[in-house]
Amino acid sequence: MSIEPAKGIAGLKGALRYVRAYRDQIFVIKLGGEVLHQAEALSGVAAQLSLLSSLGVHLVIVHGGGPQASALSRKLGSEPKIIAGRRVTDDTALEAVVMSVAGQLNVAVLSALRAHHVRAVGLSGVDAELVSAHRRPPVQVVDDNGQEQRVDFGHVGDIERVDPRVLETLLQSGYVPVVSCLAGDGNGNVFNVNADTMAESLAVALRAQKLIFMTSAPGVLRDRNDPSTLVTFADPDDLASLLATSAIAGGMRPKVEACIRAATGGVERTHIIDGAAPDSLLFEVFTGAGCGTMIVGRKEKATYLGVDLAALLG
């Protein structure tokens, strides 16, 4: 037997304990707009999702589509406005979000999954009252320059509640829900909801074992310009100092904040990884070292480190 096949078999044996642990568990996976923009990257992600599904993991996919919505806004004659990583959604921006995210991108994800034999169903938070929200009032925010300002985000919704029954029904029937980041209210209004927040809310409502953000970054970096400063493992206390500085800014901030809320709200483990890197999802899920940043609650950190130490001691 050659060395490479032997390494492959060893890898399979090493992954076996993860396969057993994850069977019949729920993973909520959020795909960033940067990943969706590249057909090859999306196909690679779909192949990895297909493998997870075939191993008995129940998947819920959530996607945004910020870059695509921004491009369509420009075509419609309106320059996008992003403050503290969040989109100001006027009438034109909402039109762009609905068309690009709930339309073109949702179908693109479904098509990629179908090519890898995954039975997926597209929906948004508006469907079956899955996600109910209200219009966000003007709020004080600190922008990426550290300046505080009052911002009216327009047709942006803050989530009030999640009714996961439609997702549970689909999961029990063997389907993979693909959810776009729109929510509604009882008056028929549609809101643009931050996809990171939606993924977090769905993960908590479903009591998912994992919440995974697939982004264009390798994870949380202490220095945004230096990939070698990757934070591989953290709890909320570890991240507090980074959040207080400009180290975590732009679109990474809402992801980290969503991970912290999910990790303290019942989701065992949350992850931020580079979705465009080959097989990054499988490396993160099926190897002890992983490839990105894992964020857990304080209690789970103690449990994880205890298990890890036991493994090291044999």
**Class from helix and strand fractions:** alpha/beta
Distance between the termini: 28 Å
Largest sheet: 8 strands, mixed
Uncertain residue ranges: none
Sketch the topology as an H/E string, one letter per element: HEHHEHEEHEEEEEHEEEHEEEEHHEHEH
The neighbouring-strand order within the major sheet is 5-10-2-1-13-17-18-16
Total of DSSP H or I helical runs spanning 4+ residues: 11
Computed Rg: 19 Å
Average pLDDT, rounded to a whole number, is 90
Helix content: 40-55%
Shape descriptor reads: globular
Strand content: 15-25%
Number of strands: 18
Produce a short descriptive summary.
The protein has 314 residues and is an alpha/beta fold.
Structural commentary:
This protein is α/β, with parallel strands linked by helices and 314 residues long. The chain contains eleven helices and 18 strands. It has an eight-stranded mixed beta sheet, with helices on both faces. The chain has a two-stranded antiparallel sheet with strand order 3-4. Strands 6-9 form a two-stranded antiparallel ribbon. A hairpin with a 5-residue loop joins β11 and β12. α4 crosses α5. The protein starts with a helix and ends with a helix.
